[in-house]
Amino acid sequence: MGKDIREDIAWAQINKDVLKSLESPRKLYWVILFIALAMIGVAVGCEIYQYTGGMGVSNKNNSHVWGLYIATFIFWIGMSHSGTLLSAILHLMHADWRKPIYRFAEAMTTFSLMTAGLFVLVHLGRLWQVYYVMPYPNERWVWPNFQSPLVWDMFAIATYLSSSVLFLYVGMIPDLAICRDNIHAGWRKKLYTVMSLGWEGTDRQWRNFRITYLTIACFLIPLAVSVHSIVASDFAMSNMPGWHVTSFPPYFVAGALYSGCAAIITLFIILRYVFRFEEYMTLPIMKKLVRLTFAIAMVWTYLNLIEFASVWYGHDQTAKDQLIFKATGPYAPFFWAMIFFGSILPLMLAFKRIQTHLPILLVVSILLNVGMWLERWMIIAPSFAHGHYPWTWDHDQWPSLVQWGIVFGSFGWFTLLFMVFCKVFPSVSMYEVKEMVYHRSLALKHKPAVKGDY
Amino acid sequence: MSKRHLLALFNDFDEAVAAIAELRAANIKGFDMDDLILKSPIEHPEVEKVLGDKPVHVQWFTLIGACMGGLLAFFLISGAQANFFSQIKGGKPIVPLPPDFVLTYEMFILGGVFITVLGFLICAGLPAKRSSLYSTKVSEDQIGILVKGDESALAAFKTIFTKHKALEIQEEAGK
């Protein structure tokens, strides 16, 4: 395997390359931005129609109360775990190959959470009633039910979002100072000057920075696990067939890491091309990322099998019926597509040639996320369609175009936020790449030239 | 005697460290090692060998923030539940600990993160005004040593910095 990064790359060149990405991306950037805006337009139109017409236009009904909205909510929450994985976990493990790519993964975390939060509002119908989950009593001094996983969700997601934003911001301060020093006029100069807080890279600042970053990383790991465990509790703590599964929390966490990693591969390829980051987002780094994704895909597959086996060999007939319904009923094509995209397709990632073949990886990573989205939908819809009581069964329900439109638009919303971030803030961490180059060149210097030198 | 600032820029980190070590050993009159600041584009923990161990207090903020966050959350939730006369508890505990633990845990983390960042800002002295002697080269690829000393010490500083191949020496009057 080649080098993750060239050790002889000049530090001034690193600044220059990354700062250039703030100014002149390829034309494809503007095309992506335009498409994202158009997608948002579709979603806004659908939401206005739903808001004025009522939830009936979304084709939700008494059985299917959550629909695509909550499936997509889980999908976006899951997507957000990639930033924590790359930033926090790999940071604690001293895996320095993460350095050129962790910043955009962190940004992905933040924007995925912001996208996920929208679905909580959208699925309510009555947007103004969102305060029911806030820790705020009504006029009769009735508080929200703190024993409900839905209230836990609100706390967990708010904590995760604010902590992720702080983690992203704190980690970016030295780079913002670089931007401040190199951009000479305009609103950007003012923005970077304010946001860099007067950072000068003094030994005192670095010393405290190191501990702060490490401490927040240590907090973020259990937080990320708890967030998706709590989202899993929304289901696992009910007694709906197909949801009341002990392994749901780890299954959700593994699924989250999986979809997050697949999304990082997609964005890696896009950013590498759009911002000309070939020097930093290198193929050996991609190889490591692909291998990590493959490993997590296998963990997810294993947890899937465990879930099926425990239902199959258990004594809960309704849960077993639910599993058979998923595999053979009206949702069977989606269920088997989920298995194919989630468990069979990632086997391709085991082949060395594919691990660095960017066009194939782009397609595969998108399909992996299609599989992961289907997984979330296969958790929600079949259980609502085929619950405990036959009179609640509704096998023919299909989400209306309004639901599909809003889900479609959420991808545009995420893309817009993400691409604007990459144009305004450095999406490759300059100081961390310099650290990587510095330590690797030191290691190279101290490496004995001949084996017998020891 | 009035103090003056001097900033020396180095290309090589090892040379900068050697300069600091020599400044320490030289025992220059009118100069205190605590008045030396190293500025670098990346973190160099190894500089502590010559600068001496300097304590970091951010962890204490973390501890206090996390404990406060957890305690506040628990008392808010249990207080709300204890005042929750409108809901019939049906023999179940008024303050159920297992579900309350989840929210306490979340707020423990939130408090920890928020106060850690506050602690970082306080301990690192941020936000700060840009010091009068600053070179943008420090955020690029050069190491800066900022010293403050009596006017009589300036010649000694310059000799040491020049000996260790300083690329540039900037000088400014102190207050």
Characterise the protein shown here.
Chain A is mainly α. Chain A contains 16 helices and no strands. In chain A, helix 5 packs across helix 6 and helix 9 runs antiparallel to helix 10. Chain A is globular, with a radius of gyration of 23 Å. Chain B folds into 2 domains: 95 residues, 2-Layer Sandwich (Alpha-Beta Plaits); 67 residues, no CATH class. In chain B, 46% of the residues lie in helices and 18% in strands. Chain B is built from 5 helices and 4 strands. Chain B has a 4-stranded antiparallel beta sheet, covered by helices on one side. Chain B is rod-shaped. The termini of chain B are close together. The relative contact order of chain B is 0.32. Chains A and B meet through helix 1, helix 6, helix 8 and helix 16 of A and strand 2, helix 3 and helix 4 of B.
Low-pLDDT windows of residues of chain A: none
Number of helices of chain B: 5
Identify the biggest protein-protein contact and residues per side: A-B, 58 and 60 residues
What oligomeric state best describes the polypeptide chains here?
heterodimer
For the largest beta-sheet of chain A, the strand count, sense and barrel status come to: none
> How many structural domains are formed by the residues of chain A?
1
Instruction: Determine the N-to-C terminus distance of chain A.
Output: 24 Å
Secondary structure topology:
The complex is a heterodimer of chains A (454) and B (175).
Chain A: H1 11-21, H2 27-53, H3 67-79, H4 81-92, H5 102-124, H6 149-182, H7 186-195, H8 203-236, H9 248-274, H10 283-313, H11 317-328, H12 332-344, H13 352-355, H14 358-385, H15 401-424, H16 430-446
Chain B: E1 3-10, H1 13-26, E2 31-39, H2 48-51, H3 58-82, H4 97-124, E3 143-150, H5 154-163, E4 168-173
Antiparallel strand pairs in B: 1-3, 1-4, 2-3
